[in-house]
Amino acid sequence: MKVCSIGLRGMEGYRVQVEVKELPGMPSVVIVGLPDTSVKEAKERVIAALHAFGCDIMNQKLVIHLSPPERKKQSPTFDLAMAIGILQVKGKLEQPIPSHIAFLGSLSLDGTIQPVDGMLPAILAAKKLGFQQVYVPYDPTFPFQYLQHIDCVFVQTLDQVVQCLQGQQVLFSMNHLLSAVDPPQKTHRDFEHIIGHEDAKYALEVAAAGEHNVLMIGPPGCGKSLLAETFPTILPRLSHEAQLEVLSLYQLAGETKKDSSPPFRHPHHSASSVALIGGGTQPKPGEVSLAHRGVLFLDEMAEFTKKTLDMLRQPLETCNVTISRVSSTVTYPAHFILIGAMNPCPCGYFGSKKRYCICSPKQIHAYRQRISGPIYDRIDILLSLQAVDLTQKHQQLERSETIRRRVEAARFKQYERYGEEITNGRVPIGVLLAKSPLTKRQQQLLQHWAATNDWSNRVQTKIIRLARTIADLAEAEDITDEALWKAMAFRRIKEGRQERNMGC
């Protein structure tokens, strides 16, 4: 007998055919097909669940083959498919199982079906693989409103699965569960609560509109963390597809996400490279993947080890991360906006107007060199912040909702220009220049400033991307001279010659 299930290799799903055959010989149950420990232990779980159902298999020899045999099976999600195959072999289930039905779920000893990590990406993979129906355990954390295009049958026990296959009414149907909606997003952060920092707010608006990376440099208490934590409030809401991707990654990592807002990850600077990038014996997503479609905030960025920061090169460039281990090689998406914050020197007060810096030039240089040149090249906007004088009058403060509307309008212009949901910060440079070419005068201006400031080709590309986003926010059809000037200003820290000599 053959029953289908879904295996996962990272986010990629593949069809697993569970074959069950009864053979003469000593009573036993043997599982083959490169099972790991969790799959080998399924034998005892399935035997106990079938005994609770009223099917005793202790006096026969059964061989269970998980095909394809060359891929290592690493999840207890095949329990339900094994039990259904055995029930067919024993004649307890006479109805044929169509090949377009998949079974997912782990069995407890009393026959209850339980969800496991990675259930949501397995369901999405089943749809891509052509399955028309999927039997899965009920999980209240599922985003039911996003699964309307997938025919899911939610079951709680092995007995319910048999009843459904025999044509009886489904206990949980998708229509019954569509009343579930996302809880309203609650946040106490808003840009209208941040006094001053008008230039920084505009820079973050540009970053949100074009998905550009930002590094903020300033003394302690000047507002770097506050700006970064408020930044997600101006990001557009996630689409259904993006929300399913994010929830799938959180499930694979064994974490939960309660709302549909873009993720915001804030790892401590003592985090290891495995925690940041992902890994383990069975590779799981790291912080860069959990920040997918959202923000990765690295506070005290210079305190991260240089080796850990350099591991960000691949995800920042390709928007994914590949993890290779002896057992397997997996690739996880890592499409995020990087927001970094750091002090200008070890004591934190270099360039401050109110506090005296006690660091030597050598100490400051060594502190800045903790962030390598390639990482600086991959950052679009460099911001120099100072403490705000609260006694002075400030401009009328805008709400995050108002800024988000402008960001959404700029994003929509980019989607229309490129014919897909891709932003200026991620679109291939050839496509960007074909759609928005620079004038000859603008090219000469950029080359002049690149030679003056020793900007690499990557930095010049970043400036063009920034200029295009600034023009989109200004509702300009082409890249204007003003947009190009503003983009170049975002790459120059306003702290004097000494700052530039230190690699910034």
TrEMBL record:
A Pfam entry, by short name: Mg_chelatase
The AAA+ ATPase domain, residue ranges: 210-380
Origin: domain of life: Bacteria
GO molecular function: ATP binding
Family recorded in the similarity comment: Belongs to the Mg-chelatase subunits D/I family. ComM subfamily.
Record-given protein name: Mg chelatase-related protein
Biological source species: Anoxybacillus suryakundensis
